[in-house]
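Newbie here. two chains, one complex. Structure please?
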Amino acid sequence: AQSVTQLDSHVSVSEGTPVLLRCNYSSSYSPSLFWYVQHPNKGLQLLLKYTSAATLVKGINGFEAEFKKSETSFHLTKPSAHMSDAAEYFCVVTLSGDYKLSFGAGTTVTVRA
Amino acid sequence: NAGVTQTPKFQVLKTGQSMTLQCAQDMNHEYMSWYRQDPGMGLRLIHYSVGAGITDQGEVPNGYNVSRSTTEDFPLRLLSAAPSQTSVYFCASTFGADGLGQETQYFGPGTRLLVL
């Protein structure tokens, strides 16, 4: 079975400063890893995904994530936070060949002006 | 192309009442699924379907039924609502064709359900 741990339930940053959201996973097989974002009262939108092609993955809106197998991590970063980045972020894992998503508990990002 | 649509947006039920949450997609996706979102728990899989006529249980299926008579629609039924089913429900879909689980899944806007 696979599982996901998001290490921070809440992250607060100032506008223009870097954002780091931490995610560790456990999986017995080769995982696919995703980051989704949910803005208030909205559905979920895919930010980026790791599918074993490259360990550094670039996504939308300036976000990127690095897959580190030795550390079983898939942390999400952005060099400069914008007010529009205030949202909840979910780290998600699936097993190879499986479309069932296992979600982390989520990290709420607050951006201060 | 409307993507994934869900109705209603919000619903209040009394304990014991039944209702159906609707989900539809116009992308010809084979794989559809239902999740519930509760504070501090992320999203958890309720039921899923790999194509018309085929459904299976997810992590938290108790109290919910599904059917898949067409590719487009995947309704979720609550036969006898309980306060523990107060949640936000999301429907998702994807082609489900790569055999690797790597395809992007598209989510609907959600249905907020309150059971009194």
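Moderator note: Chain A has a mean pLDDT of 92. The radius of gyration of chain A is 13 Å. Thread marked as resolved.
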